[in-house]
């Protein structure tokens, strides 16, 4: 997918505008009219910016997850969400993630809160890093991971080991 995206990105801006998108579709023998192309472009352009970045491209193309994968992801989320309010914050992490073992905390570069925030930023929306991770953002992060793992069994084992579920 990355190679296809780069080929379509004629101006090397790391985004696709509508013109590049249509040209790319034509290059790959997808012949549709302008109205259909605009509708599809809007589906890809998640943030409504008028361009498609690589993350938006991937999110739109990746396959849906099975219910088994969604359930194990939600188990991990519930483990992090100590307050049970559907949002993981720094306060939620204090009881489940030990920042004192992080190398940047140990060498004095970061405070505990900075370690927690960096951890949350991994899962947070790329367009709105606010230090709060919703179930949707957490699910979206793992949908990306899921796309590269063939079987449900392997994905579930990976999640159980990673989150000690």
From TrEMBL:
GO CC field: organelle
Keyword DNA-binding part of the UniProt annotation: no
Molecular function in Gene Ontology: calcium ion binding
Annotated signal peptide: none
UniProt xrefs under CDD domains: EFh (cd00051)
SUPFAM superfamilies reported for this sequence: EF-hand
Domain of life of the source: Eukaryota
Alphabetical UniProt keywords: Calcium, Metal-binding, Repeat
Location of the EF-hand domain: 1-31, 32-67, 68-103
PANTHER family xrefs: CALCYPHOSIN, CALCYPHOSINE LIKE
The protein's name in its UniProt record: Calcyphosin-like
